[in-house]
């Protein structure tokens, strides 16, 4: 197995420069794990959406990334955490067109479609953590139709 | 994306004027603020008069998220109100696939495969090249 040096990281999300760092890190980590070009682009785009949510709606936070291995499959887990106001109704926030203002309302729902696994943990006053997983090749489980 | 230690970026995207067309080539990853400044610059350029078309080449852009997509759509909508047509050229296939999956098909945005085709599209005028949004 190749080494995964540089795939694990804990990056701050405090400014739009940090958004660029996040995109660059995810691109390089995904490439290192053997993601194809389209898979890389999808994951970097999802990370950009989620990091922007962390910055704009959560008031800033962090992204942690970690490599995953399951059998021969290799994946990347990204976790976005903020201590902002939280999302009162996470299911509703995932609906296309739902927006708290300013955007196209495609960020969360769109990001979910770009990854293989997606989970959100949020409540008012408790901040928000969104965790996504993508696999370099065929995912270990069939992908859910959205 | 470049392999250097720092994200490749530019603080300002140059807006070139070629006759009655504004030509913009976006390279690499943009700060959000750079994208917004580009929108302002193009708006000012079109409003200054004599511009009938805007070509935005994004062949050097590896990621278009919903923020940048919205800026591109707003540039096109704003230019249309100022009597100029906007064509986005050179979108990478991986970016197109990602935008569709993201749910952003940008029906109001005209596209061309490269800058030359975009300029040809503009020089043919508005007749017959518009597709009605479904």
TrEMBL record, chain A:
Q: Where is the signal peptide?
A: none
Q: Report the superkingdom from the record.
A: Bacteria
Q: Which residues form the Histidine kinase/HSP90-like ATPase domain?
A: 40-132
Q: What is this protein called?
A: Anti-sigma regulatory factor
> From what organism does this protein derive?
Streptomyces doudnae
UniProtKB/TrEMBL annotation, chain B:
**Gene source species:** Streptomyces doudnae
The protein in question is named STAS domain-containing protein
Q: Which InterPro entries match?
A: Bact_StressResp_Reg, STAS_dom, STAS_dom_sf
Q: Sorted alphabetically, which PROSITE patterns does this protein's record hold? A: STAS
Its domain of life reads: Bacteria
Give every STAS domain span.
11-122
């Amino acid at each position: 197995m190749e080494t995964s040096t540089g795939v694990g990281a804990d990056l701050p999300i405090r400014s739009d420069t940090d958004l660029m760092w996040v995109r660059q890190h995810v691109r390089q980590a995904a490439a290192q794990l053997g993601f194809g070009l389209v898979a890389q682009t999808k994951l970097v785009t999802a990370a950009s959406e989620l990091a922007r949510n962390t910055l704009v709606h959560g008031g800033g936070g962090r992204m942690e990334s970690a490599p995953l291995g399951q059998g021969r499959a290799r994946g990347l887990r990204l976790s976005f955490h903020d201590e902002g106001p939280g999302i009162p109704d996470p299911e509703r926030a995932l609906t296309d067109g739902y927006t708290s203002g300013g955007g196209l309302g495609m960020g969360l729902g769109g990001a979910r479609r770009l990854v293989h696994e997606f989970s959100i943990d949020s409540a008012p006053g408790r901040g928000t953590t969104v965790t996504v997983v993508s696999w370099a090749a065929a995912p270990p489980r069939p992908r859910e139709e959205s | 994306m470049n392999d250097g230690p720092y994200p490749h970026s530019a603080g300002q995207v140059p807006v070139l004027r070629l006759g009655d067309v504004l030509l913009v080539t976006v390279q690499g990853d943009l700060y959000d603020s750079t994208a917004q400044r580009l929108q302002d610059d193009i708006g000012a350029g079109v409003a200054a008069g004599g511009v009938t078309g805007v070509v935005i080449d994004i062949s050097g852009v590896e990621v278009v998220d919903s923020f940048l997509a919205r800026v591109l759509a707003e540039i096109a909508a704003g230019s249309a109100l100022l009597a100029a047509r906007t064509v986005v050229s050179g979108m990478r296939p991986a970016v197109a696939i990602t935008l569709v999956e993201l749910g952003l098909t940008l029906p109001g945005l005209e596209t061309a495969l490269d800058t030359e085709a975009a300029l040809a599209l503009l020089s043919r005028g508005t007749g017959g090249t518009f597709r009605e949004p479904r």
